[in-house]
Amino acid sequence: MSSTQQKFSIHTRPNWAEVALPVLERNYRAVAAHVGPKVTVCSVIKCDAYGHGVVECARALERAGSHWLGVTSTEEGLAVRDAGVRARILVMTGIWRNEEDAVIRHNLTPAIATPGHLRALETAAKALGRPQHSLAVHLKLDTGMSRLGLPLEELPDFLERLKQSPYVMLEGVFSHLASSEVLDAPDAEEQMARFDQAMETIHAAGLQPRYTHLANAGAVEARPATWREMVRPGLLLYGYNLPCSGPGAEKTGLDVHPVLSWKTRIIALRDIPAGRAVGYNLTWTAKRSTRVAVLPVGYGDGYNRHLSNRGRVIVRDRYAPIVGNISMDLTTVDVTEIPGAALGDEVLLIGQSANCQVGAQEHADLAGTVIYEILCGLSPRVPRIYVE
Ligand SMILES: *Cc1c(COP(=O)(O)O)cnc(C)c1O
Question: What ranges do the domains of the chain cover?
Answer without folding.
Answer: 39-244, 260-387
